[in-house]
Amino acid sequence: MSSCQHTLGKKVEDMESQHQSRWKAIAKVLRFGFWAVLLLLVLWQFWKPAQLDANRADLVRRFQEQRKSRVIALIHGEDTINFFGVPVGSFINMEDSESILRAIRLTPPDQPIDFILHTPGGLVLAAEQIAHALVEHKGKVTVFVPHYAMSGGTLIALTADEIVMDPNAVLGSVDPQIGDMPAASIVKLLKQKPRTQISDEMLVLIDVAGKARLQVAAFLSEVLLKHLPKADAVRLAVALSEGRWTHDFPITVEGARQLGLSVSTQMPTIIYELMDLYPQSGIGRPSVLYVPFRKSTLNNSQDGPGPDQERKS
User: Fold this and answer.
1) pLDDT tops 60 at residue 300
2) pTM of the predicted model, to two decimals?
3) Cβ contact 223:131 at 8 Å
4) Which of these, 94, 97, 261, 231, lies nearest to 170 by C-alpha position?
5) What pLDDT, in 10s, does the model give residues 45-54?
6) Any idea where the domains of the chain sit in the sequence?
């Protein structure tokens, strides 16, 4: 009886040992799989932006060869393709200015420049540096606005010999902002309250805001003199910088033409292709969804929209 119990106990121990060994092997496989997946995810986060950059550079190179020009793209927005998909907003800054000035400096004086512009604006100094360099360039400057070029982006667009906008694209006013407040509204405070009731800090801001308005208007006038008579240049500079509209007021193609700007809507298809390589949606599902037409459907349709009309912004 004792021998049978010993044998049975040994079998149980062997089974438990095999069971433990099996679970250890499974645990090792799971650990390996976890680290392998994590490594692949990290590599993917680095590879995908690099692939996007390569595709973008290829399109810019193709457009440059087609136009026989120097193509510069300044495209801002929330780019979800970065580390672990965290969107990062961007705007015109001094790094942009430095890079663009270098590109212009390396361009032969008589060679045309094609500037693709998509931006909410940014630092006034950076935008003015870019604008000054484009005004001084001897070759033809064409600015393409596929969606919007607000604030400092509008300042840059005004340097162009030719502005090409999508029919639904917009420009904006160039009134300076002091912190998060419009300079024009700050200056008006003196008309609305006695000076004795205004704090010293606000009086300083009023002084700075007044100077900022004069400086931006003067710079705009100089930029516009490239294409307009002095009286028209001053009139347009004042209209865009005096705070006549809110800072995000959209100036459409029709509005730009009414202001005296020469605007074309003949946007090359390749620029829309480039914009498709700059994803603008945030984390999660896209907020806009559509199914592109098949080529056979487009060919058979007489009244349907063209391929450029089905794009999402």
Assistant:
1) no
2) 0.75
3) yes
4) 261
5) 555 567 788 8
6) 173-249
DSSP assignment of 28-83: HHHHHHHHHHHHHHHHHHHHHHHHHHHHHHHHHHHHHHHHTSEEEEEE-S-B--SG
Q: What is the dihedral of CA 222, 225, 228, 232, to 10 degrees?
A: 40
By C-alpha distance, which of 202, 201, 204 is closest to 192?
A: 202
What type of residue is 238? V
Q: Vertex 195, ends 191 and 200: CA angle to 5°? A: 120
Task: With CA atoms as reference, report the closest residue to 226 among 240, 211, 237.
Answer: 237
Distances (CA, A) of 71 to 74, 88, 261, 271: 10, 25, 22, 11
Question: CA-to-CA distance for 240 and 156, rounded, in angstroms?
Answer: 13
160 vs 264: CA distance, rounded Å: 12
Q: Which of 288, 295, 285 is nearest to 313 (CA)?
A: 288
For residues 96 and 130, the answer to whether their CB atoms sit within 8 Å is yes
> Which has the closest alpha carbon to 158: 169, 140, 171, 146?
171
CB 132 within 8 A of CB 158: no
Q: Is 250 helix (H, G, I), strand (E, B) or coil?
A: coil
What's the CA angle centered on 243, arms 237 and 245, to 5 degrees? 105
Instruction: Judge whether residue 290 has pLDDT over 70.
Output: no
